[in-house]
Amino acid sequence: PSTARAYTRCACMALTITRSAHCRSSSRSSSNAQSISRIFQVAGHSAATVINPSGGVMERSGIISSTPSKPQNEGGNFGHTINALMFPPSGGNVRLRGVSTWVRTADIAPKYTGLRIDTMKCIISGGSGFIGRRLVDSLLRDRHYVSVWSRRPGSEKRDAVGSFYWDPMQGEPSEESLNDFDAVVHLAGEPVAQRWTPEVKHKIRDSRVLGTRRLVDAIAKVKHPPSTLICASAIGYYGARGDQPVDETSPPGSGFLAEACQEWEREADRAREFGLRVMKVRIGIVLGAEGGALKAMLPAFRAFAGGKLGSGKQWMSWIQLDDLISMFRRALDSNLSGVWNGTAPNPVTNAQFTAELARVLGKPALLQIPPFALKLLFGELADTMLTGTRVLPRAAEANGFVWKYPDLPAALAASGIS
């Protein structure tokens, strides 16, 4: 009963605040916006933690209600205006959802209603993977509200990250995990870098094609669906092209990976039918010591067993992990749609890549891995490794994207492998 009375008083306070806020908000200066930002930061949490992007009071929180703002320009795709600050009777404390810090209600004052705060409520598949972990960290640093899907939701160790169960191979994600979110980033998929057996190829395709189909089907059923879908794809879309450069306008190639990527992207594009902005990022070879192709290469090079693959003439279209995360952030923070190639502007041949990696590690790389050995190790994947694709990120360049690591030497040095 005492809790019920307290929340009744909260609701009454909220109505009073909301009515008075509309009269004051137009004359409020940007210094107040900075003040509320400082309060949230001092309290050890962000506005994104306590704002409900769909409007209304956040479940199990009861701190702030807000109204979503329409995108104004490419610099701010998501924003919300505080309608009401709700807190227990004077002198009490409140605990914020997903935050371990208790905040004095005196620090959360009615004068801050009517302010617009740029924030985003985002859910990510593959959020515990090589790319996903870094993207989650980037969003948290900018104080966005982040959740992830996982087959083991209880395994998420980051206190500020929400977690929902979803196995893309088993069915659709829950409505709860999509309702009231601003954006979805879909990264999940069976790893490609393994020996391709018929069973593995089946998993590679279905985890992407069926997983994306089930995701979009679930979005179509949600009462308050996201407005944005950012979906990973791969440069395997282009197939083997030899020395011919390809960009986002090039037609798709042929072969298992190219066909799987085409199906994958078609499923993502269906989200447009339900009003979502869809952006696809065709990811190349991602450089980072924590995962991906580079992590797999390092043991051999460090054991003096590194070398070029086959002739070494095949192209490697790479990108440093930090730049790829910046691409995903640009996709989220803008109104862009369509396709970007997630690669650096300067692809290299396998022989050039091998020589540079050996130089950074201070190890010789005199061996040449023969094609038959690769086929024994990787099956059909060896054909992809021995052909390669020369991919150029012209769409990103045209939209003013700036790479921090456009050249391979600096990218390898920044990947923490020396």
Main attributes of the structure:
single chain; 13 helices; 20 strands; 36% helix; disordered N terminus
Largest sheet: 7 strands, parallel
Q: Give the strand line-up of the largest sheet.
A: 8-7-6-9-10-12-17
Protein structure class = alpha/beta
Alpha-carbon distance between the two ends = 62 Å
Q: What does the radius of gyration come to?
A: 24 Å
Give the integer mean of the pLDDT values: 76
Shape: globular
* Helical content class: 25-40%
Plain-language structure description:
- This protein is of the alpha/beta class.
- Helices cover 36% and strands 19% of the residues.
- The strands form 7 sheets. The protein has a 7-stranded parallel beta sheet with strand order 8-7-6-9-10-12-17, sandwiched between helices.
Q: What is this structure, in a nutshell?
A:
The chain is α/β, with parallel strands linked by helices and 418 residues long.
